[in-house]
């Protein structure tokens, strides 16, 4: 009987050692909860980083496209005045943050009689936060002609444009400029998107060369 009693006691001890106490279970649950919370935070952080990277890539692509378009336009600005109905417009006009100018570089491979010049206008819609571009297919147009419109930038929080001659000015022609064909030396744009400010400067020094080449062609 003594042998049987020792055997039963050993069996009870084994069963006790193989289980978990309530404290051990609570500790395990607490550790699991902490690890789960940390894992969710890391996962949420990675998702936010991915979303920011996607937005950054989209903004960068949009900015590159707008910069290249503006650069092409400014390289082809020509000192030729335009006409809208009976009103003569200077070769380049900047007034109330709206820029318009005469541009060369139009090709006519099909010989359709297209004008070699266009009239381009940049404007900013503060309510919709958009920088847009208007294109008229002829320098001399009637008031009923509708331009081709395109959005260059979206989510634009702030926009400022000035001419450089060499001093900065938010208006052109100024009171000292009497020649409708005169151009400033450059254009400076400041654009703020998602709290990041970009400053672009474009030179207009090649306009004489461009107009001579266009006339010779």
TrEMBL record:
Transmembrane segments: 20-43
Membrane topology listed for this record: Single-pass membrane protein
Pfam families xrefs: N_methyl, T2SSJ
Biological process per Gene Ontology, one example term: protein secretion by the type II secretion system
InterPro entries named among the record's database cross-references: N_methyl_site, Pilin-like, T2SS_protein-GspJ, T2SS_protein_J
Subcellular location, record wording: Cell inner membrane
Alphabetical keyword list: Cell inner membrane, Cell membrane, Membrane, Methylation, Transmembrane, Transmembrane helix
Taxonomic superkingdom: Bacteria
Principal location: membrane
SUPFAM superfamilies listed in its UniProt record: Pili subunits (SSF54523)
GO cellular component, one term: plasma membrane
Tagged with keyword Nucleus: no
Similarity field: Belongs to the GSP J family.
Protein name as catalogued: Type II secretion system protein J
The species this protein was found in: Acinetobacter nematophilus
């Amino acid at each position: 009987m003594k042998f049987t009693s020792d055997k039963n006691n050993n069996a009870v001890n084994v069963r006790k050692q193989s289980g978990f106490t309530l404290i051990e279970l609570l500790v395990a649950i607490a550790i699991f909860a902490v690890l789960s919370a940390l894992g969710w935070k890391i996962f949420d952080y990675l998702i936010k980083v991915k979303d920011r990277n996607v937005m950054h890539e989209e903004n960068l692509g949009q900015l590159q496209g707008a910069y290249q378009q503006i650069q092409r336009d400014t390289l082809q600005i020509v000192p030729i005045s335009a006409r809208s109905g009976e009103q003569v417009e200077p070769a380049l006009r900047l007034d109330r943050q709206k820029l318009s100018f005469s541009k060369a570089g139009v090709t006519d491979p099909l010989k359709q009689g297209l004008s070699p010049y266009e009239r381009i206008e940049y404007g900013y819609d503060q309510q919709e936060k958009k920088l847009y571009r208007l294109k008229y297919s002829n320098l001399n147009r009637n008031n009923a002609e509708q331009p081709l419109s395109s959005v260059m930038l979206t989510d634009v929080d702030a926009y400022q444009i000035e001419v450089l001659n060499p001093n900065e000015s938010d208006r052109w022609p100024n009171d000292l400029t009497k020649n409708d064909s005169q151009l400033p030396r450059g254009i400076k744009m400041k654009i703020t998107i998602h709290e990041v400010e970009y400053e672009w400067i474009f030179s207009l020094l090649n306009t004489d060369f461009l107009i001579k080449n266009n006339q010779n062609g």
